What we know:
Layout: E1 2-6, E2 9-12, E3 17-24, E4 32-38, E5 45-50, E6 56-58, E7 66-71, E8 74-79, E9 88-95, E10 104-105, E11 109-114
Amino acid sequence: VQLQASGGGLVQAGDSLRLSCTASGRTFSNYEMAWFRQAPGKQRELVAEISSGAGKNYADSVKGRFTISRDKNTVYLQMNSLKLEDTAIYYCAARYNRLTAYSYWGQGTLVTVSS
């Protein structure tokens, strides 16, 4: 089972970026999927999650700017109006349902927002 994240890069504040995470080795359509991020010197935090029924949950810091979506075995994170504080390594993750822990993790993709 693998989660492969991509789409990170260096952008300027105010720009947009879309991250993708493709799952392989298992059908994840019934799984909850999420994006986490970890900024330098900080703990990993939940950015957004999406259930198998497409219910969504966002961190307050990204509400109105980020959108999570999914298509079969791929989950996306559309990031608009990027801020300096969005700089982090972004990880995708999957779990069977909200009663279980996120146990499948991608390798991370770096997003750097410059002024």
